[in-house]
Structure formats: structure tokens, C-alpha cells
Write a structure and sequence with these properties.
The protein is α/β, with parallel strands linked by helices. Helices cover about 50% and strands about 30% of the residues. The chain has helices at about 5-30, 30-35, 40-55, 140-145, 145-165, 170-195, 220-239, and strands at about 55-75, 75-95, 105, 110-115, 120-125, 130-135, 200-205, 215-220. Strands 1, 2, 5, 6 and 8 form a five-stranded mixed β-sheet that branches. A hairpin with a 2-residue loop joins strand 1 (about 55-75) and strand 2 (about 75-95).
């Protein structure tokens, strides 16, 4: 056997040994120690892409009720109408806005920092089936379209009031906390599963700590909110 054949056999033997070693090491955890194991940055990047694919996260949903009263006077007569209007508001995160620069891993503290997009307020989805309207006008409402005018004014005011309630400090704080916990869990679970048992995930909103409100108003315009509620009520009536 010449030296070339001897070298070839030796190289093949080494290659086979490496393959067997990787297979054995994978089963026993040795490969992770030799090749560095899974990297937190890689896991976080995969989690980021997975969350971006979800597009939107509904972190919190709340129902509010608005009570509004409008009055009008004509010809020395007056009329008054009151509207009780409930509506649902969604607090959402647009996960597609997350970028790689928003996620950073601190190896020294085993902490993953996540910068969240602003909370978005969607709605209100007004519930006309549960709305109540009543009032008094007597002669004026009989002679004019005062009822229709007052009802329209009440609905516009009620939708605006529902948005105002939704953006108040307490519900916004609850929405922030719900969104933060959901995102932190989504990033933490893959890290823990990969062996980073002591990994921490800290998610923050851009304006936290400076006293500014952290949300975007994507609420539905008044006319669209009412029309959508009327379409839903009509659809339910046809069932």
C-alpha cells in the first residue's frame, strides 16, 4: 500500500469519525458544547419572523357604554333625546412593524430586549341591537324632524365618547400590560425550550417612561361605525 492510499484511508477514517461523533454528540449534548449549541440571537430572530407573520395581535378587548343627551328648541318649543349606546373597542399591536433592530440579546444578563410598536385602538364596534333611545318633544317632534336630528347628534357624540373612554389611562395601562405579557411569552418560550432556562424577556413601548400616551387611534369614523352596526343588525334579522 503506497503513501497516497494510506492518506486517503486516514482521511476517510477521520471523516467517518467526525460524522459518528456529531451523531453521538447530538444525542448526548456533546455536539452543542463543541459547536456552540443554539444561539439566543438565532432563536430570537426566528421568533421575530414568526410573530411578524401573525400580522396583528389583539391584546385586549373592552366594552364601554355611552349615555348622551341632545336638546333643540324651535318656535318656542323644545325637544330632548337620550341615547344609551354600548360599543366594543380592540387594543391591537401591528406585529408586522417589528424589525430586527427592535430585538436585542444581552448575553451578560441573559436578557432579550424588545421594543414594541404603539398600541392601536380599533373601533368602536357599536352595538345598535342593545342601544336605547328615548326622549320627550311632544308637538315639536310631531311637526318637525327634531327626533331624527337629535338621534343623529346623539350617535355622533356617543361614538366620540366611546373613543374617549377607550383611550383613558386605566384601559390603556391594562392594554399595555396585556400586550407586553403576550409578546414576552412568545419570545421566552422558544428560548426556554432551547435550553436558556434563565433567559428573561423585557418588552417596552417607545414612549414608556416619558409620561406620553402610547397608542395610535385607528378608530372607525362615526358614519362607518353606525352603518356597519346597521348592516350587522340587518344581517341578524335575516337569519
Amino acid at each position: 500500500m503506497d503513501s497516497r492510499q494510506t492518506k486517503l484511508i486516514a482521511i476517510l477514517a477521520i471523516a467517518v469519525a467526525l460524522v459518528l461523533g456529531v451523531i453521538l454528540g447530538t444525542a448526548t449534548g456533546i455536539a452543542d458544547r463543541i459547536f456552540g449549541g443554539p444561539k439566543a440571537e438565532t432563536i430570537a430572530s426566528a421568533s421575530l419572523e414568526s410573530m411578524r407573520a401573525q400580522n396583528r395581535l389583539i391584546a385586549f378587548v373592552a366594552r364601554y357604554v355611552s349615555v348622551t343627551t341632545s336638546t333643540t328648541s324651535r318656535f318656542g318649543l323644545s325637544a330632548k333625546r337620550t341615547l344609551i349606546l354600548p360599543g366594543d373597542v380592540r387594543y391591537e399591536l401591528d406585529l408586522s412593524k417589528l424589525r430586527p433592530k427592535d430585538v436585542s440579546w444581552d448575553a451578560s444578563s441573559h436578557t432579550l430586549q424588545v421594543r414594541l410598536p404603539e398600541v392601536e385602538i380599533a373601533g368602536p364596534d357599536v352595538d345598535l341591537t342593545s342601544a336605547q333611545e328615548y326622549g320627550e318633544g311632544g308637538v315639536l317632534t310631531a311637526l318637525t324632524n327634531a327626533d331624527e336630528t337629535l338621534d343623529q347628534a346623539n350617535r355622533a357624540t356617543a361614538v366620540s365618547d366611546l373613543r374617549k373612554q377607550a383611550s383613558a389611562e386605566v384601559p390603556m395601562r391594562l392594554a399595555h400590560e396585556a400586550a407586553r405579557q403576550a409578546v414576552e411569552r412568545s419570545f421566552a418560550m422558544p428560548l426556554v425550550a432551547a435550553g436558556f432556562k434563565d433567559a428573561k424577556v423585557v418588552a417596552r413601548f417607545p414612549t414608556e417612561g416619558n409620561g406620553e400616551a402610547s397608542y395610535m387611534d385607528l378608530s372607525t369614523p362615526y358614519e362607518e361605525a353606525i352603518k356597519e352596526a346597521e348592516r350587522q343588525r340587518a344581517a341578524q334579522g335575516q337569519r
